């Protein structure tokens, strides 16, 4: 899972039988392709990526991919879940609205449900700190403001 800290929107979700370092990269890749329009060296330069200290995220493969894309690695402090609060809150919402409500017979079925949930969450979930606007609206407003400033 990859969450945009500014908007609290979900930019990537993935399901696999095993959560390897390579599988951990998939949500990040989804977000890069969708929000940067491609996948290339340095495309995300200037953006910090907060992650926990899990072996997948600290692996050479994951850290190497971050460097290739231009992300700055920003590990959360150990035993301080508040440092990754946006992701923690999204996980709770995901569990309460999908994972604890439905059962899945296959990983592919779960993966498809996650992608549908991401779409619904971003297009209809309202966050108080954003004036009860949808996450897609918050992101679009931010991008429009940034374009005007440039």
TrEMBL record:
SUPFAM superfamilies: Ribonuclease H-like
Gene3D superfamilies registered for this protein in UniProt: Ribonuclease H-like superfamily/Ribonuclease H (3.30.420.10)
Recorded coiled-coil stretches: none
One of the record's GO molecular function terms: nucleic acid binding
GO BP of this protein: DNA integration
Pfam family, one: rve_3
Domain Integrase catalytic per the UniProt entry, residue ranges: 1-142
InterPro entries in UniProt: Integrase_cat-core (IPR001584), RNaseH-like_sf (IPR012337), RNaseH_sf (IPR036397), Transposase_IS3/IS150/IS904 (IPR050900)
Cited PANTHER family: TRANSPOSASE INSF FOR INSERTION SEQUENCE IS3B-RELATED, TRANSPOSASE INSO FOR INSERTION SEQUENCE ELEMENT IS911B-RELATED
Protein name: Transposase InsO family protein
Source lineage: Bacteria, Pseudomonadati, Pseudomonadota, Alphaproteobacteria, Acetobacterales
